[in-house]
Amino acid sequence: MRPYLKKPSDATLDDVLTQAGRSGFTYREAGMTEGPAPGGYIVDRMTTVVGHGDDAFAAASEGLKTWQHFRFGWITPWPGDTPLKPGADVVVLARVGVVYLFNACRVVYAFDEPGPTPRFGFAYGTLAPHAESGEERFEVRHEADGSVVYEITAYSRPGNWLTRLGYPVARVLQRRFARDSTAAMAAYVAAEVAMALSGLST
Fold it and tell me: Of 68, 109, 184, 199, which has the fewest Cβ atoms less than 10 A away?
């Protein structure tokens, strides 16, 4: 995973996506975020209320479908319209300081569950190239009290010697990503709900 000093072109991102498509998962336990983490993984979970009511849940679900939770200053998903279907590959471009890094992932599973507590989301797992090895799930839920929560669950470990060497920095970036992703989702939901209310009032 070599760094770039300037933002890679679309053609370069397409090449990385093609190479990632030839790769298998860089871990054995695909689907593991549906249950307890196997040994050897660090577990991170962040759960935050991002809205209330049906409109907020619809907006949060749409936000996941359109990768709004990856649309903030230093992170870009490629392609930006990657479908949430098992087997779909995505390259996450990260700008860290003055360099750009690639992380490739594949959607492992997706879910859209109605019921007393509706939930929507997906998980993806790491491919090569990726700084980490493991799986991450992104989920929105409409709780019984009306609140809409956004939850990120990650099972990870260093994916290469460079990440192991600089693991304290990698952990800082993981936590930063979770915070910024949550903020992006909350802002998107708030904007969409406000737009819906504005439309009803005109």
Answer: 199
